[in-house]
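Preliminary data (for renewal application), zinc ion complex.
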Amino acid sequence: MIIGAIEAGGTKFVCGIGNENGEILDRISFPTETPERTTQRAAEYFKDKGIEALGVGSFGPLDLDKNSPTYGHVTTTPKPGWNHYDLLGHLKRELNVPTGFDTDVNAAAFGEARWGAAKGLDSCLYYTVGTGIGVGVYAGGQLVHGLVHPEGGHVPMRRHPDDKFEGACPYHGDCLEGMAAGPAIAKRWGQGGDSLPEDHPAWEIEAHYLAEAITGAVLLLSPKKVILGGGVMHQSQLFPLIRGKVARNLNGYVASSALDDLETYIVPPALGDNAGLAGSLALGIEALRG
Ligand SMILES: [Zn+2]
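Predicted structure:
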């Protein structure tokens, strides 16, 4: 079985082919340009690969309602040219195979549930913390959609008592993304996270906001695993800080042995930076199975 997968990001597209075991057999990536040029490049990559289905995990917001006339469209993105673009429709017309479509973070959650850190579990959360923050939700063996799809990167939180930063989200100011995504770190400290030392106070504050959001999500959704990926989470010193704060926030209230050892509960993606592409592959396999 050869399945196509696209991790459609706002800055780059990753295209690959893989099989039913989640093995990625080939991949390319290229910068996200105009929608026409970018989808054309993706379609050209797949043309001679003999794919039986295609899975697409995309940046959003997206229309995921299969009964909607604009199913498969990117909707209200501020990204120039992509507003209301029929991403899935263009790919379908070019490649003419069954397709699966979801948010990039739902795809990553699905990949981790199938082959990664949440393998064998029927629920998990996947956070990506990078230029933005997104949250994929897998619950009861299904990816969660609703009015649209979860937008857990924009939840409000309690402020860190020492933090006077006003926030960087154009919609909400001090939501999670506005306080803890890469650009917020850079704006608060006048330099990017990459150039801040491991013991800089930035990481204490960063861990505070992520722990606030994760605590709320654990209480609301009761996920069996919380997976934290994305460029900012390459700062591995964040993991123990976040686990400590989540434990303090929960304060023993949620009675589950899974929470006895947060080192195995709040974890990096087992698929590493492949989680998104592998998840898109899993979406493609689902599409083929109908
Ligand atoms: Zn926001």
